[in-house]
């Protein structure tokens, strides 16, 4: 459990820093459809163009807007998620209703991923909404540079405590993402171990397993990310339900609006996932060896 905790925090930190600019662009593209045509026209829909626009208006540091909130959230998310996932895998396999899972590892992995994701989403949602607001702040107020504390204060004045769990419905519905990702990831790792002479995955195996699983899951479940970003970014308007946001986006932008920013998301999440999962597995092996050595 300690090894998994340390590995989750370490991998989340590395991935957050490396992929921060793409994360920023993805979030902004996801919310652009809710801006007016004038506001939206000021922003490029291409990765390179978006980076140039951000650097020109905010400098290179602008490409890392919201990184502080990200570093306060993503490592905590993975530090909570991975230990819970590993724990639930073992517990579900030993469950009193084990007969339902015998010979079906995918069901064990799916159940563990959904339960761990639900807990992690609920706990970390407040900081995810702070990060989203900081990343999209310049789209609404170009000269604004809110700090984490200022963003939290602004959110609280806007809607009190409940506002920090805005978008949670979309996150929970998005657990279908991990329900696809982790069974595919575990199946790919199992195949790699069977082909390995020492029964261990090589780094390349982990890169392929994480990349393939993330690509499959993201392509199928992407719309929930757009809706979650819209819900979190909504300012000064009545809180809409998940179905209401779907209806609004489809009405205003067509069904393609549900996939706004998908190309940036795939350019970000696949390498982000590879970095997170490979560094997690490497951290996990190192920390286990280290703790085992000092325990003896």
Description:
By secondary structure, the chain is an all-alpha fold. It has one domain (2-295): Mitochondrial carrier domain (Mitochondrial carrier fold). 76% of the residues lie in helices and 0% in strands. Helix 1 (2-18) packs antiparallel against helix 13. The chain is globular. It starts with a helix and ends with a helix. Mean pLDDT is 81; it is low at 36-44.
Structural class of the helix and strand makeup?
mainly alpha
What is the rounded Rg?
Answer: 20 Å
**Uncertain residue ranges:** 36-44
Q: What is the CATH C-level name?
A: Mainly Alpha
Task: Indicate the overall shape.
Answer: globular
Largest sheet: none
Summarize the structure.
By secondary structure, this protein is an all-alpha fold.
Q: What labels describe this entry?
A:
single chain, 296 residues, mainly alpha, Mitochondrial carrier fold, 13 helices
